[in-house]
Design brief:
The protein has 4 helices and 17 strands. With 221 residues, it is an alpha+beta fold. Strands 2-8-7-4 form a 4-stranded mixed β-sheet, with no helix packed on it.
Length: 221
């Protein structure tokens, strides 16, 4: 590979002569060319945080690689925790974790046309304090409604969270609906239902929480 460098450099001498250029004229370009030439494989790869601990919902400080030699691409295996990503050109790891995960080892590979270097980093993602204290509840469950009854149930949501999505599984009885952002249950029952558990899940910036309620809709008024 070093031989190729010299071949390339000396092959441009005729161009220099024909264009009446001097070595000093093209010296900056030669230096730039050599600095970008892959040459030997990368080596001595490491990261500013080899053992990182992050928190759900909090943007991480960029984890920056250090490496000897020219790197043309970076890759990671297995995939980083949800919300984090590696820049395949610079190797920097950025993002905001969205789910917790126990300590896991990730292999980062820095490559060029002549080979590669690897390093292992460990990443742990903890639940945020908001996540552990947040909760949702509906006063009065189990609920028993009559057919044709108007319903409104407002939840108590603690922990200072702001719901982004509220969802019910299975879906609520016919005629009753769950507001997708406030989690308020409202409507007028239009069909009967035997006692059924419904899980209400609230998703927010730091994760998700859930509660289970029971609903019966009896026939008649």
């Amino acid at each position: 590979m070093k031989t190729l460098k010299f071949v390339l450099i000396f092959s441009i001498f005729p161009v220099i002569l024909n264009c009446q250029l001097t070595i000093m004229d093209i010296k900056p370009y030669i230096i730039a060319l050599l600095s970008q030439w892959p040459g030997d494989p990368p080596s001595n790869l490491s990261y500013s945080e080899q053992n990182a601990t992050y928190t759900v919902g909090t943007a991480i400080t960029t984890n920056v690689p250090s490496v000897t030699g020219v790197v043309t691409s970076y890759s990671v295996s297995p995939d980083l925790p949800s919300g984090l990503a590696i820049n395949t050109e610079t190797g920097e790891i950025n993002g905001t974790p969205t789910t917790s995960s126990s300590g896991t080892s990730y292999t980062i590979t820095a490559s060029n046309s002549n080979g590669s270097a690897t390093t292992n980093i460990s990443i742990t993602v903890n639940e945020s304090s908001t996540t552990t204290s947040a909760s949702i509840s509906y006063s009065g469950s189990p609920f028993s409604y009559s057919l044709g009854q108007a319903v409104i149930e407002t939840p108590t949501i603690s922990g200072g969270i702001s719901p982004t999505v509220c969802a019910a599984s299975p879906i609520l009885p016919t005629g009753i609906f769950l507001d997708s952002t406030t989690c308020v249950i409202s409507g007028t029952t239009t069909g009967t239902q035997s006692a059924t558990d419904h899980t209400i899940t609230v998703t927010y910036s730091g994760g998700s929480i859930s509660t289970t309620i029971n609903i019966t809709v009896n026939g008649g008024s």
